[in-house]
Amino acid sequence: MLLSDLPNDIIIIVLRNFPVSDLGALSRTSRLFYHLVNTYGWQIHIRCNPRPSFSLTKAREIWHPRIRLQYDTLSDKSWSTSHFVARPLSHPWPRKQQSTLAINNTRLIVAAGNTIYSYAFGVSRASGSPPLLFEGSFSLHEERNSQWDITALTFVHDNGEGKTLLCGFRNGTLARVVLVKEDASNKLALQIDMEVDLYSHTPDVVESISASGSLCLSLSSRGQARMRNIQPTSYTSISEVDLATRSWTTYISDESSPYVAFGSSSKIAPLSVYSILEGSFSSTPTAILGIESGQPMSHSAVYGICRSPLSSPWGASPQILISGWFDGVVRVHDLRSSLLTEHLSDNSNSSGIPTSAAPLRPVMSLNDPWSIEPVYSVSSGGGACSHLAAGSARHSVVSFWDIRYPKSGWSVYAPGNDPSPVYSVVLESSRVYGATDSRPFVYDFGPNVTHDTYPQLSPSPGLKPRRSVPGYYVTRYSHGHAF
To answer: Does position 142 have pLDDT exceeding 60, yes or no?
Structure first.
């Protein structure tokens, strides 16, 4: 029996197991298979092989599935060969800043000092990289002093409009910022709402803000964490927990078995996980995530947390956590482990942290063998949705690993070689956004990047344009040997 003799619904089921190359070959054999592949095959492959990307959302809405798969396939190939275009997104800021990034389907926001810089995602009709358009910069407070510097930033739920930010400041204030278009000029403007001061962390620094669905989590430098249910016009306080230690970062997941994770400098629990039960934190941690067996945690800290990529060896579960540590190691923990129930005891300190708990060990540990610097930021995604990115604490270095082949890691310096931490990094299917203390930057692994894909910049010291591609020279090296 030939494949064409089967009923169409059976053929469609078979198509889901075909790689892109086989789908393309099959579509060229007959009119029947051309119709089935173009109508069902490409779309089925996209659904079974997701490539999450905020900056490509608008373009993907108008791309034919075949064009979308062509873009993803070429991007994956570039990831496999470490081929990309490096571009700074702005000139250096007037002074060194502790910058941060926020992203959604509409735009990328860069915060530095008390100013936010907005970049909108454009649309490309063909399979080229959609453009990134600079919309403008806006100061969030009249007083230009460091107490009003933005220290944390995230987009929050606003009924799908994608224009509401929650900002945390050095003085502990929280503010809602709404991005609006002016009717006459269609220029971007801001609406700033400071009413959420009722839930501020004054006088502590707002160290981190995370959001998932309608839940938002904020954390102060002294370990005071607050979770809220966010509505378009109100912020309702839900739950609080005091970690009672120097704290750095948060992560929240509202998917199955909701939980929050905190990164801190605690000698007992630098990475702790609390379940969300009926809209509130659990009274004690449900997991304490540790380091490799035989190594002390007393001198470690956690600065960055994210979920694992969708194509990880452990599956697409939100219960897989990635974390960046002070000792320069990126660790992967599986919260589904049956050992968790054995690791927690009834003996707790004043913060509710079990003092005799044995921390859950990581299932994978990654590091740049040529660097001893702490990891300040982490993100997941990349080619085949199987990569991790880690921003270093010095020299503006970003490290990458394909967790299917963890020994094949490599690192690259940011454009300009700023002697700076990479404070924030966002990893997408074809793009990597990062921010140092001097400027934001991007690595683009997608096809057909042009000089107009990103904002044009005049020549400046430290940046050397490449002649063959519309990018800048950057230094990269393998974790095994130099490129």
So the answer is: yes
